[in-house]
Amino acid sequence: MKDQDIMKVEYPEDPEGWFDLGVKLGEKGDFTGAIEAFNKGLKLNPEDVVAWINLGIAYGQSGDSQAEISAYEKVLELDPANVEVWVNLGVVLEETDNFKDAISAYKKALELNSEDTDIWFDLGVAFGRMEEYKDAIKAYKKVLELDPFDSQAWLNLGVVHIQTEHFEKALKAFEKALEIDPKDERAWYNLGLALGQMGDIDGEIKSYKKALELDSDIGLAWYNLAVAFENKEDFKGAIDAYKKALELDPDDEETWDALSLILEKVGDLEGAKEARNKGIELRKI
Prior knowledge:
Serine Threonine Protein Phosphatase 5, Tetratricopeptide repeat, mainly alpha
């Protein structure tokens, strides 16, 4: 007999039994069954906060974001001081591109716990995605005030500084991130971007190479490395880097165009023609 059938026979009016069944089904990956069980239990006891939380999680695992949001909102009607659920609500709102409401949820969580660096970090991400960069910087700085060794906050702060074209500030932030975690390939990549914007092509190339030593599958690093090599008139290095970028993304017509131009520059007219035709072909798709 299946778990659902056992419950229907033995505990038809027992909300706790339904809730226990929902947890058990969720642990097995049967989120549809878990949702049914939690809903049956909540009809019998609609005030159970933990059951509403678990229902929201099950909806999230099943891909029903709107139902997940509704479940968390019900939790917060019953328990408005539940910091974790305010955060969960913010996360799912952000995932559905509802950044304004996500920010409101994170702020509510921070009213209840202003010392939680994870919430400040999530708030910074949401502000950044809304292109409200001043507020994003404030949020990341608050993270770093509470925990100056948070390498990801330094990294994200640097990215925002690049987006606002404050390259020296970005450089310092990436250097701080790398002091804490020298094996962060994203920090090395973004350091390369900042150095390139500041005119330090040698430093840019070195940074991209370091990023690619740590993760050779960063297509943008290969592309930008190729551009940096080209700016140094190292055409062989540029060609090799463009080709590596195309191994990772053979459908990028912009890279095919760039490869075509540099091949023509070095006199490989046949190769240039093939690359140019590939770019044209991709634009027709």
